[in-house]
Specification:
The protein has 19 helices and 23 strands. By secondary structure, it is α+β, with helices and mostly antiparallel strands. The radius of gyration is 23 Å and the shape is elongated. Residues 1-14 and 478-488 have low confidence and may be disordered. Bound molecules: iron/sulfur cluster. Iron/sulfur cluster binds at residues 205, 263-265, 409, 411, 413, 460-463. Iron/sulfur cluster (SF4) binds at residues 205, 263-265, 409, 411, 413, 460-463.
């Protein structure tokens, strides 16, 4: 562990886009809500591996337990037992706003005039400074809750704002007043002592779904988390919608008109393959992307292999469409990732091999098609190509099931700065030379969009196209300020 309490990620050679969080909420009298939430956030672990937390209410008080680490590292039976009650929210975090540190872990907890709030957030706000000014206007220097404890996240600011306004009669009313002032991406699960709430920004950048249990209701970032806790999928929480769930049932209110622009990168890489978004199976979308890729960038080769696991559905699609057999050429060590153990220099030099190991008997002498979902900085692919050549590959043809990532994301995905994105400064031929592949092909924007079956005007594709759903002030963003101009 680093001196500041951070987990180290230097063992993780994957330089993929990092998703920012997963949220889960349950209202279910008579159920063990803490255990359900544990398994819910376990199912969402891929969305964030830096911290995990659960808040639970017994109707009178809310208890929170959270810490740095994976869900399985943070919780055991002794931690879950005191989290008794009939409502819970859970969270897994990858840091986007605010450093990776204990004080920024979620759910955030804070006082309100009507009780206590515990809040879990997936996304990234772009007017945090403006919101912080509103908090200071109300609270002065006397900050309470997570801000008072030193948190620096947009989530802590949002939580404070929901708690510092005294003109409303309930948290539900306060949410209807505050949610329209938040700008950017937010899929929220939050609660007071008696009610579970869920809300999604008007663009619906990040997924959020409602599920039904025999004895209650569940909200979760992905449908896969509903499946895993035995909940039945009911529907997506609409962009611009606030749900309140208590003993009266589910109440829906609209705090803004919906202008849906779901993140296409959820289909490419971020979401689990066994999740469904906007009626489209993520696995089916990735298979289709592989098929399109095979049509757009055919090549003579002996086998198709995937960069596991995220490249596998597209590699299967490429193999089906091209008729070239699919084979497992790389074995993933699934349990290497973020760890509290500092690696030695020798281990650092092993790089990608800590995570992926080639199967020499499959690869040797073969012309390979290697399918991956995206290229961000290019370092992983270069190391992979070198490793496959060392294992005896005769030719290496890299195929990528998303177009080149050329723009930063301001809506919660941590790619890299624009200068670090390999595709923002190089042509495709230069990228091919840089990663030392024999050939390189990216799926077209049209092909990727068509594979989702979602109309283009309902998707955000900004990191590939530069067409942001909201006006973006890149200079402010580069200066570390809110990326959107205040008057946009
Ligand atoms: S910029 Fe890219 S990663 Fe960010 S929300 Fe849009 S499509 Fe998703």
């Amino acid at each position: 562990m680093n001196g500041d309490g951070r987990l180290t990620d230097v063992l993780d050679p994957e330089e993929k886009a990092q998703d920012e969080c997963g949220v889960f909420g349950v209202w279910a009298p008579g159920e063990n809500v803490a255990s359900l939430t544990y398994f819910g956030i376990y199912a969402l672990q891929h969305r964030g591996q830096e911290s995990a937390g659960i808040a639970a209410s017994n109707g009178k008080q809310i208890l929170v337990y959270k810490d740095m680490g994976l869900v399985s590292q943070v919780f055991n039976e002794d931690h879950l037992r005191p989290l008794a009650g009939h409502i819970a929210v859970g969270h897994v975090r990858y840091a986007t706003t605010g450093r990776s540190a204990w004080r920024n872990a979620q759910p955030t907890l804070g006082p309100t005039p009507y009780g206590t709030i515990a809040l879990a957030h997936n996304g990234n706000l772009v007017n945090t400074q403006e919101l912080m000014e509103s908090v200071r206007e109300k609270s002065g220097e006397d900050l309470t809750g997570e801000l008072g404890r030193g948190s620096s996240t947009d989530t802590a600011v949002m939580t404070a704002l929901l708690g510092c306004l005294d003109e409303y009669g309930s948290l539900e009313e306060a949410a209807m007043g505050v949610l329209p002032t938040l700008r950017g991406a937010f899929s929220l699960a939050f609660m007071d002592e008696t009610t579970l709430y869920a809300a999604r920004d008007p663009y619906g950048f990040r997924p959020l779904v409602l599920g039904r249990l025999a004895s209650g209701w569940v909200v979760a970032s992905e449908t896969a988390a509903l499946d895993i806790v035995g909940a039945t999928y009911v529907r997506e929480i609409e962009p611009g919608e606030l749900l309140a769930i208590d003993e009266s049932g589910v109440r829906s209110q609209r705090f803004a008109d919906a202008t849906p622009r779901g993140c296409i990168f959820e289909y490419v890489y971020l979401a689990r393959p066994d999740t469904t978004i906007a009626g489209r199976s993520v696995n089916a979308a990735r298979n289709e992307m592989g098929m399109v890729l095979a049509r757009e960038h055919p090549v003579d080769a002996d086998i198709v292999i995937a960069t596991p696991d995220s490249g596998t559905p597209a590699a299967i699609g490429y193999a089906q469409e091209s008729g070239i057999p699919f084979a497992q050429g790389l074995v993933k060590n699934a349990y290497v990732g973020r760890t509290f153990i500092q690696p030695t220099q020798t281990m650092r030099q092993l790089g990608i091999r800590l995570k992926l190991n080639p199967l020499r008997e499959v690869i040797e002498g073969k012309r390979l098609v290697v399918v991956d979902d995206s290229i961000v900085r290019g370092n992983t692919q270069r190391a992979l190509v070198r490793m496959l050549r060392a294992a005896g590959a005769a030719e290496i043809h890299v195929r990528i099931s998303s177009p080149p990532v050329t723009w930063p994301c301001y809506f919660g995905i941590d790619f890299a700065t624009r200068a670090e994105l390999i595709a923002s400064g190089l042509t495709i031929e230069q990228i091919r030379a840089s990663i030392e592949a024999d050939s390189l092909g990216f799926i077209s924007e049209e092909g990727m969009i068509a594979a989702t079956t979602v109309p283009e005007h309902r998707l955000c594709t900004a990191c590939f196209t530069g067409k942001y759903p909201l006006p973006v002030d890149h200079a402010r963003a580069a200066a570390g300020l809110d990326p959107l101009s205040e008057d946009s």
